[in-house]
Amino acid sequence: MKYWKQFGFIIAALGMVCSHAQEVTDYDLQNFARAYKDMVLLNTEAQNEMAEIIADEGLDLEVYHAIDQTRENSDIEPDVPQSDFEKYNKVQPKIQKVQQRLEADVEKAYSKHDLSKQDYKAIAERVKQDYILQAKLEQIFDKIGR
Fold it and tell me: Following DSSP, what letter does each residue of 54-95 receive, concatenated?
């Protein structure tokens, strides 16, 4: 199964450039690892729920993605029956609710682990650039499990 665009927010969070440097303590790194683990779980659950919503409507997942991508680039339209566009339009409100709930749950995960979204992004950027922090993060993941 292809990854959802929404999964990209986790990857993007890891790749975002923060304008100010921050020292990352062991406490911060542990909270980051726990928040990341929670977010991966939340994202997986949301992906599965969205896939189920799409399947329940009788829409193929690849067709859904093809139509969804055309919403971003209106110059291209997939060669699918009009009924698939209608199914897409029918599931979109349900998908958007799942996405909104996911965003709220992610915010709660930040807070639960004593982080803000900015803190999380800043730590992600520091880890991305620092091999020592990467090694420490790996050790933390080994202890808490991925």
Answer: HHHTT--HHHHHHHHHHHH-TT------HHHHHHHHHHHHHH
Q: Which sign does the torsion angle of CA 126, 128, 131, 135 carry?
A: positive
Q: Give residue for tokens 């698939």.
A: 84
Residue 65 structure tokens: 């993605």
Return d(Cα 49, Cα 45) in angstroms, integer.
6
pTM above 0.85, yes or no: no
Question: Do residues 35 and 115 touch, judged by C-beta distance below 8 A?
Answer: yes
DSSP secondary structure letters along 97-119: HHHHHHHHHHHHHHHHTT--HHH
Measured from the Cβ of residue 69, the count of other Cβ atoms closer than 10 Å reads 12
Q: What's the token pair of residue 53?
A: 């919503």
Separation between Cα atoms, residue 90 and residue 35, nearest integer Å: 33
Q: Note down pLDDT in tens along the chain; length 146 residues.
A: 444 454 444 555 544 434 344 589 999 999 999 999 999 999 999 999 999 999 999 999 999 988 888 877 767 777 888 899 899 999 999 999 999 999 999 999 999 999 999 999 999 999 999 999 999 999 999 998 86
